[in-house]
Write a sequence for this structure.
């Protein structure tokens, strides 16, 4: 097998069509990685790989000049005459002789400050030169894993389709992209992907598109989840210290200032490293900056290093970015992740204006045969040569892909995995046919993850069966799922069974048909404001009974699809028969002398009456979701929506109850909802969730059909944000069958305020300010105000949040502390 790999690697190397190729090294012969290589006075260039090798094609023949540019080394310009191809050109680069022109640096006279002030003042004119352009784009991304465990949460992870060796180390992702881009600042983009290659998949599409590679330091902030402050932002002096380390002269006789940037406060969203500024024009020559994980609230990230190099064209006098790299190191539990992404921009065409309708909601389009390009194409066009490691990975994984997707191999793996043992009656069993791409699974009788407790069922757990067919999911987005869930409650001694059918027709408009039916227990509030995990702990430890349940027997059919760009319509018809339920157990682990409240949310101390009478009806539901300004990416295998964060999402709903056993249960309800996240630059994010609704002809409807609001009496929060919950509101105290309005807002400073407060900034947390309001006709308005800290924890584990809450309803109602335990979501 090794001989086979070496032969293919030789053929890959021999098949190269590059006009110029060679190696770049230092004076000692050590290879220099990521050296920028340019054809003089053009935007045609590339960069060397990790082994110092490079190759690229020239735009013109005859006499040419090739420029080699690498930070810390003297720029070299080499004149060449190409007589035959390929042309070999090896370069040894000489370290730069830096000088400060005998400038004396002191606190009162820091020359770096004057340079940065000039760069800030010239920012507008420099960025306007590259406001609009067409360009060719190439990207390559590689992601590696080291010391991966054999199992995660008891499940074997295997070798990840040949990625990992016996030590859990290897390349888990390697891909490349060629595309044509049209870009207009600040964020208009049209990208056509002409070639895409993914190691280990002949049907895959790379995600290394231009959309994710725009980091513009002429902007005040750069988005890394948190808005990072540019070293030449308008307010940069509030965040950075600067030091002029050296100057040097480039090949065009420009003096380049190398300035070290460092943080004034360690926890602020700032870069560290170097920015290189051109004297007189004050344009960016290069950046070499680190982003530390804790500064962008990504604790598992150690550091990202972003490098950019700009080239100058004498004819148009524009400095334009030609190469960019992003290097990532991260890890936890001894597992290490490293990633390297390289980007090459070439053949720029700067224009004054684009034609009308150049930019549409389609941001990216991948051509039909983009992932079918052969090795000849890649060898002839790839601007950065593959390293031996990358070449080996392509060859090995392509070979593994062919073997592991062959019918013989799939059948052998299935035969091993499909063996049935009696123990699987308890633990569960799956039968899989990988060739036909379908599976049948049984969850077993020891599904401990589903075990929970409530006063109606006592201890209860789930089992079930599922059939899945995904034969055309990869190419057309079609899949089918048929499942049934069995739930048994010990205190009731009752088994309930539900079934579900889902069929998705495509990945274009996501047309989906679904059907459900069976018997189940449901909370009166269909949003299920109290989770099974929290209710189990609250009941068994503190003898609280917050979860109020009823029995639902139903059959429903629904259909949803995107009917326009950003507009999804969902319709459902649901026949329901509802029956009241009562407590069947008084068991608890502690507080055994206390009594549970009843299962009646209207009368907690009434153990004989129910909140409603047994009845049946049919519900018709329509829901439209509108993502304003929705963007999307088109691929041969589907359309993939990309929410436009500049605009809100609007929901419009209508519910009608008909065909009830008594007319009084019938009603109409109109409802609407608006969600929006307003990004405030580097000052944080303001989230909003606004809801309103109105019932008609609903005077005597069942309490089940009231509008119930998401309260919380446990003082435990599970979600990352509290934009859909009232933190101290009793679960059913304000339920209504009339009109209602509720508003939730939450401001997360993303560290903007908390980073500036001594001692608190050591927590590296974020400040949360919240306000919540509820209005219904028959109750005084209910309001809450909150203040808290998020992103709390220990070391890399920031899964905690603490909020102080005050509530008001006809005056001061109460206060309390809510503890956010976001890790509990894993248990659901």
């Amino acid at each position: 097998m090794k001989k086979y790999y070496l032969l293919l690697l030789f053929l890959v190397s021999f098949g190269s069509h590059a006009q110029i190729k060679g190696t770049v090294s230092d004076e000692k012969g050590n290879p220099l990685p990521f050296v920028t290589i340019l054809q003089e006075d053009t935007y045609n260039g590339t960069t060397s790989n990790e082994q110092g090798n490079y190759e690229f094609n020239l735009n013109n023949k005859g006499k040419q000049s090739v420029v080699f540019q690498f930070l810390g080394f003297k720029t070299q310009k080499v004149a060449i005459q190409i007589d035959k191809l390929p042309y070999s050109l090896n370069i040894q680069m000489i370290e730069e002789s830096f000088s400060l022109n005998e400038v004396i640096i002191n606190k009162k006279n820091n020359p770096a400050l004057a340079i940065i002030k000039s760069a800030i003042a010239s920012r507008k004119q420099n960025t306007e030169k590259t406001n609009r352009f067409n360009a060719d784009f190439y990207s390559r991304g590689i992601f590696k894993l080291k010391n991966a465990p054999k199992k995660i949460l008891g499940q074997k992870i295997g070798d990840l389709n040949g990625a990992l060796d016996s030590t859990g180390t290897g390349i888990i992702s390697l891909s490349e992209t060629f595309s044509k881009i049209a870009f207009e600042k600040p964020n208009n983009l049209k990208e056509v992907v002409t070639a895409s290659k993914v190691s280990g998949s002949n049907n895959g599409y790379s995600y290394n598109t231009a959309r994710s590679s725009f980091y513009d330091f002429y902007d005040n902030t750069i988005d890394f989840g948190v808005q990072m402050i540019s070293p030449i932002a308008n307010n940069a002096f509030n965040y950075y210290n600067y030091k002029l380390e050296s100057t040097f002269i480039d090949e065009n006789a420009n003096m380049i200032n190398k300035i070290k940037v460092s943080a004034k406060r360690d926890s602020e969203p700032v870069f560290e490293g170097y920015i290189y500024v051109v004297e007189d024009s004050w344009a960016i020559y290069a950046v070499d900056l680190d982003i530390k994980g804790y500064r962008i609230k990504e604790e598992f990230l150690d550091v990202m290093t972003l490098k950019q190099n700009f080239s100058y064209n004498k004819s148009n006098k524009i400095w334009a970015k030609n190469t960019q790299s992003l290097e990532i190191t991260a890890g936890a539990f001894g597992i290490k992740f490293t990633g390297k992404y390289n980007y090459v921009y070439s053949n720029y065409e700067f224009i004054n204006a684009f034609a009308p309708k150049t930019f549409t909601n389609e941001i990216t389009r991948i051509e039909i045969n983009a992932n079918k390009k052969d090795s000849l194409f890649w060898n002839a066009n790839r601007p950065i040569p593959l390293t031996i490691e990358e070449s080996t990975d392509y060859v090995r994984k392509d070979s593994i892909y062919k073997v592991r997707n062959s019918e013989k191999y799939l059948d052998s793996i299935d035969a091993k995995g499909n063996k049935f043992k009696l123990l699987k009656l308890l633990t569960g069993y799956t039968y899989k046919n990988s060739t036909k791409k379908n599976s049948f699974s049984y969850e077993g009788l020891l599904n401990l993850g589903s075990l929970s407790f409530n006063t109606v069922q006592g201890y209860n757990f789930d089992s079930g069966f599922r059939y899945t067919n995904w034969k055309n999911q990869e190419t057309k987005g079609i899949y089918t799922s048929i499942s049934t869930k069995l739930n048994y409650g010990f205190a009731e001694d009752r088994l309930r069974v539900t079934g579900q059918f889902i069929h998705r027709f495509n990945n274009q408009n996501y047309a989906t048909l679904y059907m459900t039916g069976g018997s189940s227990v449901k909370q009166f509030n269909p949003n299920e404001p109290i989770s099974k995990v929290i209710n189990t702990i609250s009941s068994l430890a503190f003898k609280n009974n917050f979860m109020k349940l009823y029995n639902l027997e139903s059959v429903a059919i629904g259909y949803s699809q995107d009917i326009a760009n950003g507009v999804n319509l969902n319709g459902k018809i649901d026949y329901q028969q509802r029956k009241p339920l009562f407590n069947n157990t008084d068991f608890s682990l502690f507080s055994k002398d206390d009594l549970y409240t009843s299962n009646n949310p209207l009368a907690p101390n009434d153990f004989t009456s129910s909140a409603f009478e047994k009845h049946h009806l049919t519900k018709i539901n329509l829901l439209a979701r509108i993502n304003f300004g929705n963007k999307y990416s088109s691929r041969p295998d589907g359309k993939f929506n990309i929410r436009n964060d500049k605009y809100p999402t609007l929901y419009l709903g209508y519910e009608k109850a008909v065909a009830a056993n008594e007319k009084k249960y019938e009603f109409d309800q109109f409802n609407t909802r608006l969600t929006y996240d307003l990004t405030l630059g580097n000052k944080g994010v303001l989230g909003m969730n606004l809801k309103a609704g109105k019932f008609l002809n609903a005077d005597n409807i069942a309490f089940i059909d009231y509008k119930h609001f998401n309260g919380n009496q446990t003082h435990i929060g599970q979600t990352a944000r509290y934009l859909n919950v009232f933190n101290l509101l009793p679960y059913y105290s304000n339920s209504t069958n009339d009109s209602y309005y509720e508003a939730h807002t939450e401001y997360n400073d993303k560290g903007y305020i908390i980073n500036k407060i001594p001692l608190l900034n050591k927590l590296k947390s974020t400040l949360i300010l919240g306000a919540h309001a509820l209005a219904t006709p028959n109750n005084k308005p209910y309001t809450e105000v909150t203040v808290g800290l998020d992103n709390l924890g220990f070391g890399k584990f920031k899964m905690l949040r603490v909020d102080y809450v005050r509530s008001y309803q006809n005056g001061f109602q109460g206060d309390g502390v809510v503890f956010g335990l976001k890790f509990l979501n894993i248990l659901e």
About this structure: The radius of gyration is 31 Å. Residues 1-92 form a domain with the Immunoglobulin-like fold (CATH 2.60.40.1120).
